[in-house]
Amino acid sequence: MSDVAIVAFGAVSALGEGASAVSAGVVGETARLGITPDDELTRAGLGRPFVARAFVGDAEDRATALLERALAACVTDLDRARPGWRRERVGLVLGTSSGGMRAAEAAFAALARGEEVADREAATYFGPMARAARSLGRALDPAFLVLGACASSVLAIGLGMRCLARDACDVVLAGGFDDVTVFVASGFEALRATTASPPPRPFRLGRDGMSLGEGAAVLALVRNEPAARLFVTGFGASSDATHLTAPDREGAGLARAAVAALDEAGRPEIDLVSPHATATPFNDPAEARAIGRALSGQRVVPVVHPFKAQIGHTLGAAGALELLACGDAIVRNVHPAAAGEGAIDPDAPARLLDRTTTGSVRAALKLACAFGGANAALVLAARPAGPTRTPRPVYVRAACLVDAEPALEALATAARTTVDRLVRADALVRLAVASVARLEARCGALAGAGIVVGSALATVETNALFAARIRERGARAAAPRVFPYTSPNAVAGECSIAFGLTGPSFSVGGGLHAALEALAAGTLLVEGGDAERVVVVAVDEAGPTTRALAGDAVVSGAVALLLSASPVDAFARVGELHVQRGVSVSGTLAAGHRALLPLVDGAFVGDLAAASPPDALAIVRLGPV
Fold first, then answer.
1. Catalytic hit among 74, 163, 305, 313
2. Is 150 an active-site residue?
3. Distance CA 262, CA 517 (A)
């Protein structure tokens, strides 16, 4: 059960700002469309240059500008709804797919010319979050950056719910952001995931993919606010553990996430489903099957609202924007129209409306899928479902270090995969897989567990290689086999596939303290009942781009550890968690995976600490079992 309420929000999309950005439509009208031909992608030579751009003026750093607008609007709304919130404990949990990729592209080009990077923070995944957080002018604890690809903001909202359940804070600002760059658009076009003739046509015959979009949304979440009009009553997450970019054809993994969210919400009747709906040939049928499984036995046939067909696929912002559109439908009692034309695909049945109608929406189900096979779901309702789950104890069972890539043949055997697959992956994946293989050898089979990966600079080395090919050969020459590994979630996905980790699966990366950020996030999942066991992996690849951005603070290597709800064979119990932003950092603390090295001896109790200067700090306290 959950009594988490949405008391304020800020949103930006191609449809506008505030309520306009997430409108469920006007009764009697068709769905509004925000997708248009895009000058930047056309100049880059892409064949499918259609984007739903949000207006941010002439801002060079569009990702930060989008996030700052949404955050500022949320703060203004929160001042109205909860005037005393500035005296309360505040957390920040955001999701993104590409972070500061626009600045990163410029940084990669500068490095290729032999120049120094003038603003190194801006060129990271966490740059926009760090800058937006400073605009609040206060300490934030906890502060997570979820790098869960297209499921990032749904995962961020779910993680925010668990922060409130732990009583780690009084208010959580949760959501996501992303802009569209040539880097990102070329990758999706290389995968043949984008449409040649917008608007997209999800669940319809003849569909040929999505259009990208950009936006940001931040929601203010609190507990025990009975006067609120919207409540997030359930959260669930899972991994397909079958393929890095293609969905489980039967939708089994997504159905598990949806069922978990519905169970937490007390199994309400769902009147509206907001699907992931990328309008690709395989996603929509898989999602239709997942919806059918999750809602089997329900009397109501829910309306399906594929909002991406209107505002584009806004990646890290998608789940938050689409959840708010569900909220608009609940508050205004409307059943929203679906964009797109054509007959419904009998292999992907969905109740799509041509025009928005009046109708009661008591509860809505929001679904999200992502690279790496990650799935996440939320239930949104007009009433709370009951008291939030009581957190349970979490224990650390074992930790294993890998400080160099092992021989490919041995790793392929340990991970039950092929040498060719490992060669196609990047060093970040190989180091992570090697550490989990070592953990499994010590602890036994890990199948069914979840996984959270933390990496100081994530996939920056692979990103630099992908960007170099685009600069040298043009955007239409983007490498389709490399693009999936530019997603930080690829590490979690490959580990899930190799070891059958079907629980919640995602990466985090708020800075050089990401190892402890991952440990804290994994603890929240076990504590909240989202998984019985979670594998936490801290992994770093220190190549030339990493050294240019972080100096010698980060070295290559990985540590994998196992968190469990059971104290059996454990050597420590997780206590206080602090993942902070807006605090003064002085002195030298561990960075990257090295923050977890004390755990490798299997006996450590005490405080683990890591920092990401100038203003981010993580401390995790471990006590005796």
1. 313
2. yes
3. 28
| Active-site pick, 74, 150, 169, 443 | 150
Q: Compute the CA torsion angle 485, 550, 514, 235 (nearest 10 deg).
A: -50
Burial letters for 242-277: b for 16+ Cβ neighbours within 10 Å, e otherwise?
bbbbebbeebbbbbbbbbbbbebbbebebbbbbbbb
Residue 451 parent element (H or E): strand 450-454
Residue 59: CB atoms within 10 Å: 15
Helix crossing, 427-443 with 460-473: angle to 10°? 150
Residue 551 φ/ψ region, left for φ over 0, alpha for ψ in the -120 to 50 degree band, beta for the rest: left
Beta-bridged to residue 381, according to DSSP, are 231, 363
74 assigned to active site? no
- Tell me what the mean pLDDT of segment 239-267 comes to: 94
In angstroms, the CA 273 to CA 269 distance is: 11
**Which residues is 232 bridged to in the sheet?**
4, 380
Catalytically annotated residue among 74, 163, 169, 276: 276
Closest CA to 274 of 208, 319, 341, 230: 319
Write the pLDDT tens digit of every residue in 556-579: 999 999 999 999 999 999 999 999
pLDDT value of position 389: 78
What's the average model confidence in pLDDT over 365-390?
A: 92
Q: Are 566 and 480 within 8 A, CB to CB?
A: no
Non-local CB neighbours of 354 within 8 Å, separated by 6+ positions: 30, 337, 338
Q: Judging by DSSP bridges, how do beta strands 171-178 and 90-96 pair with one another? A: parallel
On the question of pLDDT at 587 being above 70, the answer is no
φ, ψ for residue 93, nearest 5 deg: -130, 110
Cα gap 521→125, rounded to integer Å: 18
Query: H/E/C letters for each residue in 240-256?
Result: CCCCCCCCCCCCHHHHH
Does 586 score more than 80 pLDDT? no
Q: Is the distance from CB of 312 to CB of 51 less than 8 angstroms?
A: yes
SS3 334: strand
How many other C-beta atoms are found inside a 10 Å radius of the C-beta of residue 16? 16
CA distance 36 to 197: 10
Q: How many CA atoms lie within 13 A of 350 on its CB side?
A: 36
Instruction: Give yes or no: 276 in active site.
Output: yes
- What span, in angstroms and rounded, lies between the C-alpha atoms of 531 and 448? 9
N-terminal to C-terminal alpha carbon distance within the chain = 28
Residue tagged 């980790």 (tokens): 501
Mean of the per-residue pLDDT values of the chain: 96
Query: CA 415 → CA 245, 499, 536, 593, distances in Å?
Result: 19, 7, 17, 21
